[in-house]
Amino acid sequence: xxxxxxxxxxxxxxxxxxxxxxxxxxxxxxxxxxxxxxxxxxxxxxxxxxxxxxxxxxxxxxxxxxxxxxxxxxxxxxxxxxxxxxxxxxxxxxxxxxxxxxxxxxxxxxxxxxxxxxxxxxxxxxxxxxxxxxxxxxxxxxxxxxxxxxxxxxxxxxxxxxxxxxxxxxxxxxxxxxxxxxxxxxxxxxxxxxxxxxxxxxxxxxxxxxxxxxxxxxxxxxxxxxxxxxxxxxxxxxxxxxxxxxxxxxxxxxxxxxxxxxxxxxxxxxxxxxxxxxxxxxxxxxxxxxxxxxxxxxxxxxxxxxxxxxxxxxxxxxxxxxxxxxxxxxxxxxxxxxxxxxxxxxxxxxxxxxxxxxxxxxxxxxxxxxxxxxxxxxxxxxxxxxxxxxxxxxxxxxxxxxxxxxxxxxxx
Length: 412
Known about the structure:
Elements: H1 16-32, E1 40-47, E2 50-53, E3 65-68, E4 71-78, E5 88-91, H2 111-117, E6 122-126, E7 143-144, H3 148-156, H4 183-190, E8 195-196, H5 199-217, E9 220-225, H6 228-238, E10 243-249, E11 293-297, E12 307-311, E13 326-330, H7 336-349, E14 355-359, H8 378-410
Parallel strand pairs: 5-6, 5-9, 9-10, 10-13, 13-14
Antiparallel strand pairs: 1-4, 2-3, 4-6, 7-8, 11-12
């Protein structure tokens, strides 16, 4: 005898307690799930590639070619559509990738997601020859990597090493102690990648690729961190009309010399960068040797006697930076607290009329270090400091356009 299957109209009775159990289970799952962030569309592409001959190829009419210099670009768009006129472009620092801004090492929402929620399109890149941007062994220069001790002492647990003033005040890194064996540290360190050994090669490759990116996508709000701060100055110098604002989170520096960790080591021969900038008057033979330098010692207690360098008067200017809104953001406990002020003073000296300097402790944020955009209070910082500054730039630009329209209407 064949079994009889229930028809579509068959009613199956279950006790109400079963449905109550399912409802409670679903609620508990939702509560236990991490925040999903902002719903968005995602695409990726590569830009900046050029073909080079394979160095070890035999001489022939058909020389094998390689693609070099390209960078990986991730493009995120709010699912509801972008409400802001210009997107944000994030460029990460040394030894890291674009994942820095997607979420924090302990799984919280990152800054990219926060800006998506404010209606911005977001672009994130992996630096040239880094991460998902290919490093070619036959073409590119040698690489280096950060050790666990370097990461602990500079980024995640500087309070244990006290290599500079205020390091002992660091408290905001998530996790147990910011050291090997702490799951949050281990997760962060696992994301570190090799980087090019020389700042000159990094500067040139990233300059070329980032210029190609801006030429493709148009004007942006640029946000850089650490090593990428140098790329920000050179990119603004090359494409000033495409930089609507520049947010430099503890940019690489200071001008002409090493930071507090190596203050006597010459560096950044072009002042802000290791690669050429368009000074006015132009430098003879396009050589930075013509940039005359003066030592500047200030009474700023945050400097702890640190010596800055500036140009001897009359200083050459960087006309491309004159009208770009720039903010340098520095944490309370990072080594950058000693020397970032030197960068701001140099920017003013070369004619950057709209530069501002923000120390997070002056806005009530204490205990933060060099990686403050992924520390415990990262979302409070972006919501209270960085996000509003960029929004103010947009409002000011809109108001200026409206004044120009009114002026044209009133002009007989």
